[in-house]
Amino acid sequence: MTAETITAAAAGTWTLGDRTVNRLGFGALRLTGSAAFDLGTPSDRDRSIRVLRRAVELGVNHIDTAAFYFSPLRSANELINSALAPYPDDLVIVTKVGPGRDASGTWLPWATPEQLRGQVEENLRQLGRDHLDVVNLRMYGKGSPAEHFGALAELRAAGLIRHLGISAVSAGQLAEVRAIAPVVCVQNRYGVGAPPRAHELLRTCGELGIAFVPYFAIAGEGAERGTRDTDHAEVLAVARAHGATAAQVRLAWTLQRGPHVLAIPGTGNPDHLVENVAAGALRLSPEELARLESAA
Ligand SMILES: NC(=O)c1ccc[n+]([C@@H]2O[C@H](COP(=O)([O-])OP(=O)(O)OC[C@H]3O[C@@H](n4cnc5c(N)ncnc54)[C@H](OP(=O)(O)O)[C@@H]3O)[C@@H](O)[C@H]2O)c1
Questions:
Q1: Is ligand 1 within 6 A of the CB of residue 256?
Q2: What is the average pLDDT value for the chain, to the nearest integer?
Q3: Which residue has the CA at smallest separation from atom 28 of ligand 1?
Q4: Of 216, 241, 269, 287, which is most buried by a Cβ count within 10 Å?
């Protein structure tokens, strides 16, 4: 399953806010270094630019990023800007606010509602835009998101943001923010092996017409710094049956959880990119889906 002719359209489409995107998208976290938030090994700039351009050539029109995705010499937003501007009309760039890092990369306390405007403006400057397509409020913990989401709703009303989403959210928090402003996507950790409450939230989003956008879908549970050397026997068996890789099976499994699920696999590797896009054409049988679920 490495045919370079397979494009992101093979995964089907979803309307995110007012824009149609292919369900197979791209996550920018891994473009800046060899591991997430890497402070030691900046990526090869040309390679990252190549990955972004190739993604768009392969039909990717949904990219997830953040201003706090940077290593000492690379910024995901700057790479996106340099590689893709002037942006294709159909490209939807989703960013997230809440977390922040100082110039040395040290994590700052979660933003106050008043600080969110500055974070939105930072994304606008880095991406070279005058509005952001979608902004996710990245939650921390169980507190109420109301004040933060209210602040983002004001920025939306002011025209800086077109649509709002929320990330790392519970069902209760989602209900709370939906009463403040429309929510077009939920970005939560999800993949093979996800706990029952994660499945439940995915289903709720489907019922509400909200996109569910899993992160760490390839890394899976307990492997957030990258892929494992060996995968679960069930994942490998399904992969073998399709002549696919474990990463492709994991992505296909998430996409088959519902038409509202959008994949954003992260990679800085051009070969992995092609492989991930091709996963949008992989269809697992009901038996295989059940097998993967029980393996978890
Ligand atoms: N909202 C949040 O809190 C949050 C948290 C984390 C991530 N995110 C977003 O979600 C996106 C996805 O998360 P992620 O990138 O951390 O995890 P992921 O998509 O699960 O990818 C994890 C690792 O898998 C490797 N990989 C990718 N494709 C592969 C393939 N075909 N075969 C083998 N290995 C492969 C990548 O390394 P290589 O570079 O070596 O391919 C990467 O290190 C991120 O890029 C980011 O945009 C959001």
A1: no
A2: 94
A3: 272
A4: 216
